[in-house]
Amino acid sequence: MVKDYKTDKGKVDENFCRDVYEIVKNIPEGKVCTYGIIARLIGKPQASRMVGRALKHLPESVNLPCHRVVNATGRLVPGWNEQSLLLNDEKVCFKSNGCVDMSLSLWDYEVILLK
DNA sequence: CAGATGACCGCAG
DNA sequence: TCTGCGGCCATCT
User: Quick count: other Cβ atoms within 10 Å of Cβ A24?
Assistant: First the structure.
């Protein structure tokens, strides 16, 4: 197992990372989500960085569409060129500069709140 | 223990 | 939407 998300204090972000995985897994194809939104859904709008860090530490064994998670500006993950290919296959709208068109491809996360 | 780093966010221009 | 500045939080050095 990975040695992440655990500390000696016993009080860990197990519910935090778990919720992150659940949310990311619920992202439909052709849609993307931002770290801030995910962090807010969990209840920690300041933990946006932790979301990104958690995904990076995430092993490939886990089946998560982390490529559908981008930052607020629609910027893709630096150093991960494959992400653009995956999103392109998802029929996600891109801009000329290579950023995702948030207005069109942003996941309507409100549906999860209504449910 | 303090400083630097990072798959970031919000605000202002 | 993009850039610059400050802030937040956990990990690394």
Answer: 21
